[in-house]
Amino acid sequence: MGIKDDAVEVRAQGWRTLAALHGNIVAALEKALQSAADLSVVEYTVLDALSRQDGWHMRMQQLARATALSSSATTRLVNRLEDRGLLARILCADDRRGIYTELTEAGQKLLLAARPVHDETLAESLTAAESVPELEPLVKALGALQGA
Amino acid sequence: MGIKDDAVEVRAQGWRTLAALHGNIVAALEKALQSAADLSVVEYTVLDALSRQDGWHMRMQQLARATALSSSATTRLVNRLEDRGLLARILCADDRRGIYTELTEAGQKLLLAARPVHDETLAESLTAAESVPELEPLVKALGALQGA
DNA sequence: CAAAAGTAGTTGCTTGCGCAATTACATGGC
DNA sequence: GCCATGTAATTGCGCAAGCAACTACTTTTG
Predict the structure, then answer these.
(1) B112 pLDDT exceeds 70?
(2) Domains and CATH numbers, chain B
(3) Residue B95: CB less than 7 A from any atom in strand C
């Protein structure tokens, strides 16, 4: 049964590595986006998700899934961004329970300003993680994902 | 410059995948550990980190790094676990600023009960993620990490 | 050896999150 | 067509997180 136990330990170790890398990246992005655009990581995620959506509108639920947030958190997140004029709520006619969100011009503008900061910080984080023995293999594996 | 831009997009995509997988796993672990042992994921992480430490004691700062938490959050996290009798604070003589934390017997016992739940939930999450096209390659890469 | 600078941990305050309950709308059975 | 069941989004509430300010101790420096 040693083999099975090993598999468990390998998974746990992989998970710790994943969590550590995730934590590092989030911390770096949080700081960078905050100071550059007054955005949190989830806020950036929303703007980015909306921009990569055809027609630029998404329902609350999709947003919740895209951000791994609860519905209530999503509601308030959208509130914050709406109050800042970065996106707009649009009720859709065919299903009157549903609400679409859409980037405003200000939102697109801010996103365009924030994206380079985001991408650069991400690159830096990954580079930094490459020189941490614990994290290096995962970073490499990550880089090889789409490269196939 | 198309090549460079591609690299940026690949990194961003990889990051989104990583974040999504991380979110799924955390959500699953949170629910499972909560109902099985009344522990949050960070709380479990602390107990687990302490148990895997030789001599079973760590300083607050190490704990903060291990959990990717701020010092203040670590203080209160340790408070919670101490109040529940799962770990104990021990001031160390050589540096009277420092505080060691150590698992109590109750803490070890709870950890032993929680660990199978944790490992099983982790395995389930990864299996579930394998059938999500977006996530599948990363899960495989993760499994191949230590297997080398 | 005394003052300055640095480090470890804790506390006050604000903010954002999840859960459960609620409102508003949609849909399936009869 | 009408009631029961289900889904979308929002609100009340409690809790845990981060930041900044603070205390206590250590180390450096002149």
Answers:
(1) yes
(2) 2-125 (1.10.10.10)
(3) yes
